[in-house]
Amino acid sequence: RARSSSAPRCRAPRRVSFSAPDSRAREGRQRHATIFDREQLIRFSHCDPAAIVFFPRYFVMFNNHVEDWFDDGLKLGYANVVTERRIGLPTVSVQCNFQRPSRMGERVSLRLGVERIGRSSIGLALECRHGDEVRVRMQQVIVTTSLEDGKAVPIADDIRAAISAFQQGAH
After folding, report:
1. Mean of the per-residue pLDDT values for the chain?
2. Cystine design at 96: which of 31, 56, 81, 138 (Cβ 3.0–4.6 Å)?
3. Is residue 3's pLDDT more than 60?
4. How would you classify the pairing of strands 121-130 and 107-117?
């Protein structure tokens, strides 16, 4: 049956690759040569009554992971960037694919790779795994903004340099 042009369309999520750099990748976009990886215990507070992670909790876990990346992966201090330098890092786009449930008591791996760096945006690929099994894949775009007026600003040189060093494995 023909689809109405005004009907919403669903796109299949794009597979996120956590592999080595791809020479065919477009400039500004890189496969994930370096991954920021942390273990996360699935706690009671993450779960619904069925003892599996309630899906919005993944967004909180991934946001915490981005903050940890700024602190420990980039060595910039997320709190310093936001409160002292007044640079906001809001999420402007998220695409998420929930593949398998995670259960209370499991220890999962949260992984982060940089997909691209734009003028004011940073494209991230995030993944939650339990062993070799992918539980959740997410693509996120954050934008550097002025906390004074809320407008997008170019990524600060030191932030851009830290991300580039991270991508090259020099963190």
Report:
1. 86
2. 138
3. no
4. antiparallel
